[in-house]
Amino acid sequence: MKAPVKPAIEETGDAMTRRRVLSWLSGFGLFGSLIVTVFSNLIFIKPRATYGQPNRFSIGKAEDFPSGARISLDARRVCVVREGDKIAAISTTCTHLGCIVSVSETGFSCPCHGSRYDQDGTVTGGPAPRALPWYQVTLAPNGDVVIDKDTEIEAGNYLRV
Ligand code: FES
Questions:
Q1: Which of 113, 116, 123, 132 maximizes ligand 1 atoms within 8 Å of its Cβ, making it the mutation to test the pocket?
Q2: Ligand 1 in reach of 123 Cβ (< 6 A)
Q3: Which residues contact 83 (CB under 8 A, 6 or more apart)?
Q4: What is the pTM of this model?
Q5: 28 CA to middle of ligand 1, Å?
Q6: Which of 3, 103, 117, 125 has the highest count of CB atoms within 10 angstroms of its CB?
Q7: Does 132 sit in the ligand 1 pocket, CB within 6 Å?
């Protein structure tokens, strides 16, 4: 008579518990790695670039700038110049190393290394290598004055408003 064959691993209560624990752990590991993979792919897909302010923007109505005004919009790094019925925009970024120039009695002055510019942005002193650029100014259909910092124009070109 043959003796009953014993299974290689006895399926006792302890063995089943260990097997279940190992199954749960491997399942949990697979699920966790799936979550990490999905999460890291979503982070990778989403662009991390931050976009600055647009270079073409409205500054409101021309009437907001009285004749003779030289108003520096530091956040935009531009100075709005209004003379009579003409308006223009001059960069306030120093052409030396990029500091913001301030409006002065004689034009513009840079606090960083002392460059000075006249009312039109032409260099009158200091290390600045070139004049402050003028930007194109247009009127939007709703009458707003729009400055386009991507388009430099020749100094002295005003927009009639
Ligand atoms: S950054 Fe203006 S003078 Fe140097």
A1: 113
A2: no
A3: 67, 68, 158
A4: 0.70
A5: 60
A6: 117
A7: no
Q: How far apart (Å, rounded) are the C-alpha atoms in residues 69 and 67?
A: 5
97 lines ligand 1 (CB under 6 A): yes
Q: Which tens digit of pLDDT belongs to each residue from 35-84? A: 999 989 888 887 777 777 889 999 999 999 999 999 999 999 999 999 99
- Residue range 97-136, pLDDT digits in tens: 999 999 999 999 999 999 999 999 999 999 999 999 999 9
Q: Residue 139 carries which DSSP code?
A: E
Strands 123-125 and 134-139: unpaired
Does 127 contact ligand 1 (Cβ within 6 A)?
yes
112 lines ligand 1 (CB under 6 A): yes
CA distances from 65 to 30, 39, 94, 117 (A): 65, 51, 23, 22
Number of neighbours of residue 36 by Cβ within 10 angstroms: 10
